[in-house]
Amino acid sequence: xxxxxxxxxxxxxxxxxxxxxxxxxxxxxxxxxxxxxxxxxxxxxxxxxxxxxxxxxxxxxxxxxxxxxxxxxxxxxxxxxxxxxxxxxxxxxxxxxxxxxxxxxxxxxxxxxxxxxxxxxxxxxxxxxxxxxxxxxxxxxxxxxxxxxxxxxxxxxxxxxxxxxxxxxxxxxxxxxxxxxxxxxxxxxxxxxxxxxxxxxxxxxxxxxxxxxxxxxxxxxxxxxxxxxxxxxxxxxxxxxxxxxxxxxxxxxxxxxxxxxxxxxxxxxxxxxxxxxxxxxxxxxxxxxxxxxxxxxxxxxxxxxxxxxxxxxxxxxxxxxxxxxxxxxxxxxxxxxxxxxxxxxxxxxxxxxxxxxxxxxxxxxxxxxxxxxxxxxxxxxxxxxxxxxxxxxxxxxxxxxxxxxxxxxxxxxxxxxxxxxxxxxxxxxxxxxxxxxxxxxxxxxxxxxxxxxxxxxxxxxxxxxxxxxxxxxxxxxxxxxxxxxxxxxxxxxxxxxxxxxxxxxxxxxxxxxxxxxxxxxxxxxxxxxxxxxxxxxxxxxxxxxxxxxxxxxxxxxxxxxxxxxxxxxxxxxxxxxxxxxxxxxxxxxxxxxxxxxxxxxxxxxxxxxxxxxxxxxxxxxxxxxxxxxxxxxxxxxxxxxxxxxxxxxxxxxxxxxxxxxxxxxxxxxxxxxxxxxxxxxxxxxxxxxxxxxxxxxxxxxxxxxxxxxxxxxxxxxxxxxxxxxxxxxxxxxxxxxxxxxxxxxxxxxxxxxxxxxxxxxxxxxxxxxxxxxxxxxxxxxxxxxxxxxxxxxxxxxxxxxxxx
Length: 804
Known about the structure:
26 helices, 22 strands
């Protein structure tokens, strides 16, 4: 007998000791056996392992009884081989019975599954489950731990536990004023009462002397222990589904109950998971120590242990992050490597002239990111960089410097902002910065020329929808002729009428406010222009790598010296009048204030102040002598812009708004931010609101009103009171709220994450590293062995949106 089989015998004996849980070896027996097969050299060893690894065999797919039979037969075979006897042929293992579905596939509707009618399929469709594959990936949101089996005499009140018992008797009983079932069950150590509310039919189902498994919590009633509405099933069940194990809890909708969903998913997984073809290359699985896909799917639904549940989640989470990274990195690779960019010469004298004209010195953080951007501009491949920094960190100064370099190289620059007010703000700020070198010619308007800046003169234009038609056409013509060097605008820049003569650099502000197609449309206005994306929303590294994985990352974490500190205070409902009095005092001093409300209209289900009702109340009852403005998402765009202009120009004292004010206007005279229902917002949103004040020379305040915050809400309010670092707050926000609501609304362009968590920093870094390595070896995933993976990447992005 070849000694290489001895470890297998020990592993199988350990598998027996572990109750056939497939935990004797990391990665499971299937993986171990195939690994042995690949390394086997002796003919008798090869023969034996080929019989053990016969086509279609999956130890993981067997239930415990079938596993026990297979292990015992295999150990007998190994023993016979060790004594030199003629080895008997290992019987082919009996796989779980599964219904064959002629012409059915993973893309087939779930009606091909046994027990799912068209009516039932319609209910599953509400949960996003339409195909067989959808069912396999319809993961439970958590598992109940019913693995703790106890004798009746040792049951503990309040704990989730499982017993195996005999039914003594069961009858219909009045429970809570309605009919239910009451039963007495027993084991060798005692008896316990069991009740099921509103389920009188169970009295006939639970036959006397039948053996059942019960899982649930035990409570005390009239001095005795009682199971209340536990999960149950007969001990004769081939494989436990609802009890005695880690039991999955699935999302539900009307017409679907937990037991029915568990049974249907279990059958679908048993039949179809073994038929999944693993798209992940073997080298990636081995390098990252990941279990096979069929095994991961099975263990994600019905794990044999907590360890297996964790292994399954790790594999499936890796898949999600890996496919996203492949998508965004492929997009970047295709753009940069297949397209030649426009390398810029850095005009150092011009840059020095601009920087020395500023009334302040760049912070070390600004200098660092400026160096990173200039280094990109010198390369022959187009720049793709995300610049993130908080409001007031100095992103606009950096953007102006690199736009100057683009123009000095004979190219045009474009800066796109999400709103007209923000575009005007950029136009005014950049014009002011350029004026430090030399004043512009002519009257102030949407077109300015600076005679002392190359290409002599340097022309800046503002292009927004509210311009008069004549002005708009004139600016469009000048852009087309190349007589505008820098154009600043909104989505008006991507209209068909706008044509650039030589666009070389695109700057997009507040990245997450634009769709993928809008950003792409602006980039296509030139020949592979460099792209700089800016955001004032502090984004944790994990989220940035996922949402903007196709972009290199630059961060300005340092605020310029002298920035006014914003005092933040959490107030309760009793302090509301004091807050109003404080706000009135500041307005009497000539300042302005924001009041933020979570909703547009009153809602009975959510106790939150609504902007419309609150505006009317404040105008009539609290501040009838002051000038109030109202801003919310349902106001037409033109009116919204006008409301923001009036506030910016000081013609409104208080702006009552929903969260639409989160990103946008810069009002140096606004010194108070009062936030209603502050506990209903995430930390990042609260920090963004807070950043709307403190933009001028006056001390500013952020008042957080929260009437009855939850424990979690109180924690958030305590954190924002003490913390002013937006990046720390963003990390905390991501942990508390998750990525889906990070920006306050669902982020488009990112495929849904079912298993991955963006707190999985190490796993995300591993996925990105593996994706980079794979794309370096096989750009475009064109090698035959990567065809399945390439198809999966394409399918994911088709389903979840384009890479950001």
